[in-house]
Amino acid sequence: MIKIINKDLNLRKIAQSGQCFRMNETAEGRFQLIARDRLLYLTALEDGAVFECTEKEYESFWKDYFDLSADYAAYRAAVDPSDAFLTEAAEEGRGIRILRQDPWEMLITFIISQRKNIPAIKACTEALCGRWGVEIEDTGLHSFPVPEALAGASDDDLKHCSLGYRVPYVRDAARMVSEGRIDLEAIAKLDDEELLEALMKVPGVGPKVGNCVSLFAYHRIAAFPIDVWIGRMVDEHYGGRFPVERYEGFAGIMQQYIFYHALQTKNK
DNA sequence: GCCCAGGTGACGG
DNA sequence: CCGTCACATGGG
After folding, report:
1. Residue A135 CA to nucleotide C8 C1', Å?
2. A110 CA, B10 C1': separation in Å?
3. Within 10 Å of residue A162's Cβ, how many Cβ atoms?
4. Helices A207-216 and A251-266, interaxial angle, to 10°?
5. Is beta strand A23-27 parallel, antiparallel or unpaired with respect to A48-51?
6. Is residue A72 part of a domain?
7. CATH number reported for the structural domain that contains residue A182 in this entry
8. Cα separation of A87 and A3, whole Å?
9. Given this model, what pLDDT does residue A267 score?
10. Does A237 have pLDDT greater than 90?
11. Segment A52-76, tens digit of pLDDT
12. From the Cβ of A165, is strand B under 7 Å away?
C-alpha cells in the first residue's frame, strides 16, 4: 500500500476526464484500473490516493503512469489571470493529470472514439478486451488485446463489438502495427510534428485522434486535440482560436481542464 | 421519429 | 485550399 498525498491527484476527476476508458469507480472512492497487463486498485483520499501495490511497482510503473513527478500547480499558476473562464476550469480540474498510457491501446480506443460518447467508447473497449484480451490472473478481467489478436479477427466478429463503420479502421490499424508498417515504439523518438504525421498515416486517424494519441500515450503535452466539446468552448470563450502560444509546450494540460469543465457543465 | 457523440475520408469547387 | 457529406450504433 502506497499512500500519496498530493493536492493535484484526484482519482475521480482523472477517471472522468475522458483520457482513459478502463479506470472505473467500482464503489464510493474506490477505483479499478487496467493498464497494459496490470490491474490496480486505488482508494481516493481528500488530497491524493492510496495505491494498492508494492513500492517497487509504484516506483517502477505507476508513479510514471500518473505523471507524479510533474508539478501541476505550476501549470495552473501559468493560467492567464485575466482569463476568468480558464481560471475557473483549471481550478475545477485540479487533480487531473495526463496519464502515460499504452500507444497501441490509445490508437485503437481513440479511433473508436470518433462520433461516440464516452460510455459507448468504454463499452466497445470492454467488448474488445473480453473477446480478444488475456485474462488477468483469474480475475475475470482482461487486458487490452495485442495487435496480432485484432489483426486476426474477422470483420464480422469486430462488428459485434459495436464498432460500426470503424471496423475497417480498427482492422487495418491492427494489421499496420502487427506487420510493422508502423512502429509505435520507434516513433516515440520523433518530434511532435513528425509523430502526429506518422500517426495520421493510420486509416481513421486524423488530427483529433492523432493529437489524443500524442497527448495521452506519448505524453506530448503541447498537443491540443480539438473535438466537438473543445470546439464549442473555444468558439464561445476565445472567438474560435485558443491562445496555445501563451501556454507554449503544455497547452494540452489546459485542453484537458477545458474538456473536463465542458463535461461537468453538461452533466449538471 | 429526432439529435448527438473526444471525426475522418472522399469528393467537388 | 475550402466546404459538404456519408459513415454504424446506442442513448436521451
Report:
1. 29
2. 21
3. 14
4. 110
5. unpaired
6. yes
7. 1.10.340.30
8. 29
9. 81
10. yes
11. 999 999 999 999 999 999 999 999 9
12. yes
Could you tell me how far CA A266 lies from the centroid of its own chain?
20
**A266 falls in which pLDDT band (50, 70, 90)?**
confident
* Cα A114 from chain centroid (whole Å): 14
What is the domain extent for residue A132? 103-216
Nucleotides of B under 7 A from a protein CB: 4-9
3-class DSSP state of A40: strand
Would the Cβ of A18 be found within 7 angstroms of any atom in strand B?
Answer: yes
Does residue A121 reach within 7 angstroms of strand B, measured from its CB?
yes
Whole-number pLDDT of residue A130: 98
With CA of A115 and C1' of each nucleotide, the nearest comes out as B5
Residue A94's φ and ψ, nearest 5 degrees, are -55, 125
Q: How many folded domains does chain A comprise?
A: 2
What's the Å distance between residue A59 CA and nucleotide B7 C1'?
Answer: 37
| SS3 call for A197 | helix
pTM score, whole prediction: 0.98
pLDDT-based confidence at A268, cuts 50/70/90? confident
Quick check: is A191 in a domain? yes
- Nucleotides on chain C that have an atom closer than 7 A to a protein CB are 7-11
The reply to whether A47 falls in a domain is yes
